[in-house]
């Protein structure tokens, strides 16, 4: 659907109307941030329409978010769009007034790679905090020994920063410049106007930048706060990584400590808890990049004794919040590190939460549960998530995560669980709510553009009407695949090579186990709550996707003592030389097998030449109890049926990287066949992704086979993670 001009202007009008209603003094920061967003939208109006829609609904209209949180998210989205505009057809342009010296002759492009000491320079200036009179520019005020800037050698004191990673720094506040620099990855591209140009532009009656620095500006490292920061006439910031803070007082000291913080655009940057029954006020969370974090002097578990002389040792939570809120821009805090008292307080809160949980009848509520274990149902790369409040934790589909703190609606703290059961890594991951909200917003945008809606609707309708049983069974497998050996029949929607199309299903045999997901919106995959379970059987194995037939055959050939297949059931007559329970379980009557299907005794069944064929739960159990992995050539529907029967299969999805990779691994298929195979694989993932144990990719068939064997080894038990009865 093309974006109409009136739609674009309507979206912009909504934003401007919201902006006009911000009249309170405390709304100034949010108002300024929205002005930046509006400028961006006006320059790329039509391309940004969909971004406006999501931003307006998810951020500004969310009444559960504070003004401070909205301000932070608005600044983040503005920085993101300025850094990565919807459409970029030319080199970045910088809007500023040229001074007498030729700017082009004084511009240099510098690429810095962050090391252990970060970028290694300080800045000053910005709108409202001019470093040079009548100039809103951002200037370099200090080069730090050992930092990236010093090692590069081109950046000098007095240089003016014009852009960071193509984000324009002209007419921005000091806080916005700091945020832009801190949001960068390890490689940072700067556009700089050299100091000779800047000196020529300073009025003759004004002091030089160097004079101003020595007389008026004291550069203070962001990792070592001092009381001198309270009297700075200009804001300055030093870009060092706060990994090795050098606080003036030891945060681990049991003695009370005096800390001075200057409020930034995000406030003081920490949360408090407590204030009930005289238990004290404690710091519960430090916002990464906020004033508290950058000072290095405040930490989780600190008890707040006083704020600007106001005694908070016996204050209520409301009194403490009011004191911090009304403390002004410079806040003097007396704090004492009391980890034992804080841990006792947290334990009491957890007990109360557990009591609430025990009296509730709903699902697991993450805000009431201190820790939980989940299985990831998507890949997550924290380097691509610009909204992370602190260090993120990367994970892959199928990874087990120990969520150690799920009290926040947006971000959880978690560790990965290795196949050996050990915990590794620690970082922030997006909450279930955040993942699903962002995905719904993305899907809404796709729907809003009208692209592919007919195809999606048709596919969903087809899924609703599809017979739930597999159109091909292990006992019907043909080795003659007409050059498409690895195009599995369950992906072919019923095409059985060499055997003709399957016949229409008999009425009332069974229903699709996924029908619940077809009511309303499609499920969005995020996390699945899991628990550990001891196995007393060998898990069945289901391989789905391209190469599945080859992998199934190779597993049985290479490990005949560990892998086997089960004996299927059928209603057809026994032929000469066939042995019951060896070739098939021959069922006495069609009516009997239909009753067994209705009673969920089969994981998959279907009809061929007026005869029923099926794989029973009992047949799978028989192989499993012999200590062998039962190789099942079935559809994705069978995974859930096995789980319901108490047999948790190892379900491995082979996800092709591209159409070309399919052709590379199977030289006998045409490009059209490869494209259809790729499309079927993507559809398979969409329909059954939540049931996969693991998703495997590789460049060669041998690499994929090796990874599949590794997954089976890791998932064989005897202790495994299975879906919890309670839902997140």
Plain-language structure description:
- The chain is elongated.
- It starts with a helix and ends in a 5-residue tail after the last strand.
- Strands 1, 2, 3, 4, 5, 6 and 7 form a seven-stranded antiparallel sheet that branches. A six-stranded antiparallel sheet has the order 17-16-15-14-18-28.
- The chain contains 20 helices and 28 strands.
- Helices cover 32% and strands 20% of the residues.
- It has five domains: 5-83, no CATH class; 107-238, PDZ domain (Pdz3 Domain, Roll), CATH 2.30.42; 257-345, Pdz3 Domain (Roll), CATH 2.30.42; 360-436, SH3 Domains (SH3 type barrels, Roll), CATH 2.30.30; 515-723, Rossmann fold, CATH 3.40.50.
- With 728 residues, the protein is α+β, with helices and mostly antiparallel strands.
- The longest helix has 21 residues, at 339-359.
- The model is unreliable at 1-5, 87-105, 196-236, 240-248, 359-369, 449-453 and 455-520 (pLDDT under 50).
Short description:
Helices cover 32% and strands 20% of the residues. The N terminus is likely disordered. It has 20 helices and 28 strands.
Spans of at least 5 consecutive residues with low confidence: 1-5, 87-105, 196-236, 240-248, 359-369, 449-453, 455-520
Number of strands: 28
| CATH class category name of the largest domain | Alpha Beta
How many helix segments? Answer: 20
Shape category: elongated
Q: Per DSSP, what share of the residues sits in E-state strands of 2 or more residues?
A: 15-25%
Structural class: alpha+beta
The CATH topology of the largest domain turns out to be Rossmann fold
Number of domains: 5
Distance between the termini: 36 Å
């Amino acid at each position: 659907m093309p974006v109409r001009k009136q739609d674009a202007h309507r979206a912009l009008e909504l934003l401007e109307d919201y902006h006009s209603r911000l009249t309170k003094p405390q709304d100034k920061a949010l108002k300024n941030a929205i002005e930046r967003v509006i400028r961006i939208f006006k320059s790329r109006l039509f391309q940004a329409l969909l971004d406006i829609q999501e931003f307006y609904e998810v951020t500004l209209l969310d009444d559960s978010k504070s003004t401070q949180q909205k301000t932070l998210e608005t600044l983040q989205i503005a920085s993101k769009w300025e850094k990565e505009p919807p459409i970029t057809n030319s080199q970045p342009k910088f809007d500023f007034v040229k001074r007498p010296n030729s700017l082009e002759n004084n511009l240099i492009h510098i690429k810095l790679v962050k090391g252990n000491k970060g970028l290694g320079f300080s800045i000053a200036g910005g709108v409202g905090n001019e470093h040079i009179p009548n100039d809103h520019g951002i200037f370099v005020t200090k080069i730090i020994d050992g930092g990236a800037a010093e090692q590069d050698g081109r950046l000098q004191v007095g240089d003016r920063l014009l852009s960071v990673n193509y984000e324009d720094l002209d007419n921005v506040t000091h806080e916005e410049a700091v945020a832009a620099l801190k949001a960068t990855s390890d490689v940072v591209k700067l556009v700089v106007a050299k100091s000779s140009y800047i000196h020529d532009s300073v009025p003759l009656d004004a002091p030089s930048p160097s004079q101003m620095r020595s007389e008026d500006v004291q550069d203070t490292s962001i990792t070592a706060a001092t009381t001198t920061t309270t009297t700075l006439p200009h804001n300055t910031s030093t870009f060092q990584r706060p990994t090795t803070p050098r606080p003036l007082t030891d945060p681990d000291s049991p003695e009370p400590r005096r800390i001075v913080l200057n409020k930034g655009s995000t406030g003081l940057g920490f949360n408090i808890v407590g204030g009930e029954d005289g238990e004290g006020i404690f710091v519960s969370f430090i916002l990464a990049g906020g004033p508290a974090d950058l000072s290095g002097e405040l930490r989780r578990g600190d008890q707040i004794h006083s704020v600007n002389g106001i005694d908070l040792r016996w204050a209520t939570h409301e009194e403490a919040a009011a004191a911090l809120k009304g403390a002004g821009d410079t806040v003097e805090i007396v704090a004492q590190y009391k980890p034992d008292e804080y841990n006792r307080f947290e334990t009491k809160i957890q007990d109360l939460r557990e009591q609430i949980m025990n009296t509730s009848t709903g699902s697991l509520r993450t805000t009431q549960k201190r820790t939980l274990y989940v299985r990831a149902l998507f890949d997550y790369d924290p380097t691509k998530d610009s909204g992370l409040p602190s260090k993120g934790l990367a994970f892959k589909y199928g990874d087990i995560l120990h969520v150690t703190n799920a009290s926040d609606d947006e971000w959880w703290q978690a560790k990965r669980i290795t196949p050996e059961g050990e915990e590794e890594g620690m970082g922030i991951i997006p909450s279930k709510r955040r993942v699903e909200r962002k995905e719904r917003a993305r899907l809404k945008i796709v729907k809003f553009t009208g692209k592919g809606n007919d195809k999606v609707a048709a596919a969903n309708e087809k899924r609703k009407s599809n017979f739930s049983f597999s159109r091909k069974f292990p006992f019907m497998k043909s080795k003659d695949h007409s050059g498409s050996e690895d195009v599995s029949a369950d992906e072919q929607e019923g095409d059985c090579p060499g055997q003709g199309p399957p016949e229409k299903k008999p009425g009332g045999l069974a229903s699709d186990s996924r029908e619940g997901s077809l009511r309303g919106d499609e499920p969005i995959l995020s996390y699945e709550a899991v628990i550990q379970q001891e196995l007393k059987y060998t898990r069945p194995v289901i391989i789905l996707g391209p190469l599945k037939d080859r992998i199934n055959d190779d597993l049985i050939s290479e490990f005949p003592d560990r892998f086997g297949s089960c004996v299927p059931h059928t209603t057809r007559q026994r032929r000469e030389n066939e042995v019951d329970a060896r070739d098939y379980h021959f069922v006495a009557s069609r009516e009997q097998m239909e009753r067994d299907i209705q009673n969920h005794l089969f994981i998959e069944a279907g009809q061929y030449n007026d005869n029923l064929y099926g794989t029973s739960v009992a047949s799978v159990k028989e192989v499993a109890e012999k200590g062998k992995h039962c190789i099942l050539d079935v559809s994705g529907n069978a995974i859930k049926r096995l789980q319901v029967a108490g047999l948790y299969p190892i379900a491995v999805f082979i996800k092709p990287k591209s159409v070309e990779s399919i052709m590379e691994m199977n030289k006998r298929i045409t490009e059209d066949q490869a494209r259809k195979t790729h499309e079927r694989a993507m559809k398979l993932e969409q329909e059954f992704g939540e049931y996969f144990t693991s998703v495997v990719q590789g460049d060669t068939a041998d690499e994929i086979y090796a990874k599949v064997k590794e997954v089976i080894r890791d998932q064989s038990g005897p202790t495994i993670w299975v879906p919890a009865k309670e839902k997140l």
